[in-house]
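Q: Entry one of two.
A:
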Amino acid sequence: MNVKEFSSIKLETHETKDVRDNHTNGELTIIWRDWDKIINDPEMIYLNSVNPGEIKGPHIHKNRTSYFFCLQGKMVIVIKDKNGKYHEIEADSETSKLIIVSNGTAAAIVNPSNNITKILVMADISWKPNDNEMENTTFDDYDWKKWEISGK
């Protein structure tokens, strides 16, 4: 799959059935299969937790493309494209969506909820301490106040 700066993919889901009476007992969501060519052979998979009302980033990964899947709670990925335009991609644990942010693209993760958000993150290049692969940035002209939680 040829990914530009960022994208959002609706993932394939399948109902699962009880072995005794065949009633629907849940769902299976395909996040990665080697032959789908959605993720370029992940070298790293980790769990990212974001506290209520918090923002992680914004920053740029110079070499790494990241793939985000919301396991628990809600998240918004705020992306600043090469032309300086902001994009907000919302996801939660109820939707089957994979958000892809290519290397060199500035992004932040926002938790707009009152609960901890847990995000499964896959990367095509693994992180190493002190590898200087990530560069912090600011979105000075972005309206962060819209994500503030009252009472926080």
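Q: Entry two of two.
A:
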Amino acid sequence: MSESNLNTGDRALIEEFQAGEDYAFSALYFRYKDAVYAFCVKMLLNKEIAQDVTQDTFLRIYENRKRLLKTDSFKSWLFTIARNQCLNQLRRNNWQIPLDPDMVHPKMITDAKKTPAAELEKSEKIYLVNRFLAELKPDYREVIILREYQNMSYEEIAIVTRSTLSAIKSRLFKARRKLGVYLEEALGKEVERIRTD
């Protein structure tokens, strides 16, 4: 959802939240928590830590509601706080978060009859993407996630990351190029494995 396209329901809730209405905060929490969690889990590649960071993000939002100056900036403000919480978590752990095995390695399927081939293929692609995301530096990872998974504009990403538009474009270009290299290497290994089988 673009900043400029806040619907009237969102705008009214944000205004009521700014005015101190707790029910408005609850409504915003349920409206945005999945998007924030999705961002955190892709940044940290650890579901348990991502849940904690998501909760911390909304706690900070609640405690700092007076700092929100304009209703139109709510989404950027929310994701800026989520981003900062993720980076704090990474720093605390010396940039090494214990990765969820489920996120970077496909689960063993015990009953293939219950799992359609399309679902298997989809899950394998998700694991592959997560594995590649884990290889990226956090500043590359965040721009990929905000652009490709949160559908943010370059301008919104620049606000969230406190960067310039040109820096965001450059970082996205480099991040996509890195992902391309990882993909080529993975495909090369897969082709080699097929040849030797």
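A: Comment on entry two: Confidence is low (pLDDT under 50) at residues 1-5, 105-112. The chain is about 75% helix and 0% strand.
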